[in-house]
Every structure is written in C-alpha cells, then in structure tokens.
Amino acid sequence: MSNKIQAIRGMNDLLPEQSAQWQYFEGQMRQLVQRYGYAEIRTPVLEQTALFARSIGEVTDIVEKEMYTFADRNGDSLTLRPEGTASCVRAALENGLLHNQTQRLWYQGPMFRYERPQKGRYRQFHQVGIEAYGLEGPDIDAEVILLSARLWKQLGLREHVTLELNSLGSSDARAAYRDILVSYFEDHRAVLDEDSLRRLQSNPLRILDSKNSDMAPMLKAAPKLLDHLDSASREHFERLCGILDAAGISYVINPRLVRGLDYYSRTVFEWTTTALGSQGTVCAGGRYDGLVEQLGGKPTPAVGFAMGVERLILLLDTLALVPEDACPRLDAYMIGMDEAASKSVLLLAETLRDACPTLRIQVHCGGGSFKSQMKKADKSGARLALLLGEDELARNAVTVKWLREDRDQQTLPRQELAAELIELLDISA
Ligand code: HAM
User: Where do the domains of the chain lie, and which CATH numbers do they carry?
Assistant: First the structure.
C-alpha cells in the first residue's frame, strides 16, 4: 500500500528549476537594500503569541483566523510569524537597537498564515521587507517608496504596478473618524453583509476594504478619512505627495485603503497589479509610529513595507521578465573515459578550481560508458566537455569538446589548461 507523506496544503517546495528565478529576485533586492544603506536582520520564525496579538491587533483576520498557534512542551503559547514587522520591533527593542539612534533594517524569510490557498496566496509564503526607525518626517516614507519603485524599474515591472496611497492620520483623528463612520454604516445597516456587521463595532475601518460588490456604491459614498485628518498628518501626507511628485512617481490616492493590520498610523500604501487575478498586492506597508511604544519601548517613529516574493516571482514569470542567464550555467563537464582516467578527473578539477575561482565545473561521478557520460554532459547544460582518456593521460593533456557551439575540438597540455579555459570561455581568472 502506498502511503507517501505529502507536503502541507498551501506550503510549497521550491524546485531546482524555479530557484533561478528566486535567486534572481533575491539578488536584485539584496543589492538594492545595500545601495540604500539598509542592514539585514534575521529573527526566529517562532515568537510568543502575545507579540502578534498585541501588535497586529486582536480583531484582525490574521490574529482571529490565520495564525499557526500552538502550545509548546512547556505549555507556552507560540505562533509561527505571520509577518515580519512585529518580530523586527521586538528584536530591535530587545537588543537596544532603537536607543537614541535611527535604524534602517531589512529582512527576508518565510511567513505563515492559515488562509485559503489559491494562486498567489499560500500558507507558507515569503516576504522581503524593510523597516526604518527613529525618523518621523515624510522624507523616509518617500525613501521606502522610492526604493520599491526602483526595484520595479530594475525588474522591468514599472508599467505593470500601481501605487495606491492613503493616510490614516493620528490615532485621535482615527478615533473621531471611526465614530462618524460607524454612524454612517448604522444608517446603511441594511446593505451591510454579515462580515461587515461583525466588524461594525470591532473594526469598522476594515469594512471600507470589503470586496463585496453589492456594498460598493455605499462604500464609495462613505465619509473619507482623508477629509478628517488632523492637521499634522495632513501636512505630512501633502509633503510626502510633494516628494513623490518631484521624483516622478505616480500614485493613486485611495481613501479606502486601510490595511489589514492595526498598527498603522499616517501613511499607508500598496503596490498592486492587475496581472495576477485577485491576489494583486505585491508590496504593502506604511507608517506605524505607535508600535514600538505599544511593545514596551520609547515612542519611536517607524515606517516600512513587505513584498510577497511568490507573487512577484509569479508576475515576473507571467511577463517573461526573468533573464535567460539569471542562473549561470555550468562552464564545463569533466569526463574520465576509462577507469584510470576517472581516478584523475576529480583532482584535476580541483586544480582548475584553484587556478580559476570563477570556473563552474562539474565532474562526472558514477562511471558508465563514454556515450552515457556524454549524454550527462549534454544534459548538464555545460558549454564544453573536458575529456580525459588513455591517450590524454599518456600525453598529459585534456581534450576540449564544445557541446553547444560549432567549434573545433582541441587537445591542450594540462599545464596550460586553466589559462586556456579562461581565454576560451571568456571568464575572469
Ligand atoms: P501584509 O499586507 O499583510 O503586510 O503583507 C505584505 C505582502 O505579503 C502582501 O502585499 C503580499 O504580497 C504578501 N502576502 C501576504 N499574505 C500572503 C499569502 N498568504 N500568500 C502570499 N503572499 C502573501 C505586512 O505583512 C506588513 N508587515 C508590511 C509592513 C512592513 N508594514 C510595515 N512594514
């Protein structure tokens, strides 16, 4: 009876044929955050459940329905991180990174949410995020947006994503607006769906985010938070828009953009695409000036975003934007044509690697006929095969056979091989 254990639903393996795309994306992002002076932080995938409940908010979908929470052997309630911001604040506070200093941090890694899996939505997914601490002006909000915009440009995605922007104002302004909104929704109670009725008291702003088309006209006419901002938040938002205008970044102000996590204040934004169906948000973030204090630190302004790596890879793949050479192929595949030669090839390859660190060479292992070894050489994707047989051993030479180009086979003395390969393959020493 076959009884194969399978992966958990919504949690995917990343296979070798896909890893080139991931490495390409991650490489571009790593280079970019370094260019902006952000330093990497890595935090554990498990945290105390209270961290997420207190930061993301008790009455959010994530905390109410989506967390992987369990008691460990000690009975402590632990949760697989559903996002990176809370952990980042916890780690920065715990390690004194926020004391009288500013920080620009970035992170990447798996996140976990028990959502209904579909294209672009998984239970284990990956985020790359950046977070900046200790800076309160709109210049840093602009910087995180400009960084993301530069990534789109680098990846060829600029025409395929739209920036949506809103301000949630101060918590006082939001509380006052909340009352106005609740009374508007009370007047339109008949139109509210079940989910919205549930949220009416607990989290009425999230009703604005509803995708229910029956509610769309009522939501469109709802009072707008942007019309009820405190003056400091209004000025902050206007200055941010001014910087984005000057930088030539186009955006759409979406007064209904409220985000699904409770820690935001002032600026919120999302980069969306229409090319991925319903899971079209590829990057999202904003300012969360109250969170550090809420988690036990001194009041510290903060802003950041996280990108969904799977969604971005899907987008790059759909639009065929991953360059052919994203993952470099092998340069050479080395074959020992008989038993004596097979013994020499491993060591010969080592001397070539010593002489030329950029050379990508694989040695045939496991024997087999010359024909089957040549088949493997071909399948490896290498540009050329290096052949060592009785004749070559006797002459202290190696034969170079091109696998994909119409070039003459040649036999080279071993002591010249490294230098010749560098020249032939046009690679650096
Ligand atoms: P978020 O909007 O919950 O924000 O997630 C950010 C991004 O992660 C989403 O826009 C999406 O691309 C991706 N994502 C979320 N859930 C899934 C899923 N189930 N499957 C695939 N991709 C997903 C945050 O997590 C905040 N921590 C962002 C932030 C950082 N705000 C400030 N700093």
Answer: 16-169+229-319 (3.30.930.10), 329-424 (3.40.50.800)
